[in-house]
Automatic annotation (TrEMBL):
Belongs to the nucleoporin interacting component (NIC) family. Pfam families: Nic96. The keyword Protein transport applies. The lineage of its organism: Eukaryota, Metazoa, Chordata, Craniata, Vertebrata. It is found in: Nucleus membrane; Nucleus, Nuclear pore complex. Plays a role in the nuclear pore complex (NPC) assembly and/or maintenance. This is Nuclear pore complex protein Nup93. It is a peripheral membrane protein. Keywords: Membrane, mRNA transport, Nuclear pore complex, Nucleus, Protein transport, Translocation, Transport. PANTHER family: NUCLEAR PORE COMPLEX PROTEIN NUP93, NUCLEAR PORE COMPLEX PROTEIN NUP93 NUCLEOPORIN NUP93 DEAD EYE PROTEIN.
Amino acid sequence: MVKQMTDVLLVPASDTLKIRTSMEVQMEFVRQALQYLEQSYKNYTLMTVFGNLHQAQLGGVPGTYQLVRSFLNIKLPVSVPGLQDGEVEGHPVWAIIYYCMRCGDLMAAMQVVNLAQHQLEISKLGSRSTCTAKTQGFLLPPRTKFASITDGL
């Protein structure tokens, strides 16, 4: 964690306090923390799956979607009726989307949404670049969005 947080680029300046409390530096710390948490959870998922290969039934194209599906074979072996809006390969859609996002793979979450589109009654979401741009803007808004909210206070 320390290595991840020390990767934040600090610029030499005369007013250290002003630089460290700037929105750009704070957002970079948030990005690094988010990346650390996502990678840590993905490592936990990998260790769980590789520790239970028979039950996990890992297979298919390597990637987060298959990893999450295998993880759910271990952690959520039996679906509880009434707790899901739909299923993809025998697992609740919400669970697969949640764990894909928790591992930091938004494109895998989009893949699940596209697979379950007919069950969820939603329109197809945009392209890969649109998804990335929208989610990055949602998770980590740029300074200009904060400026309009906080400058009037």
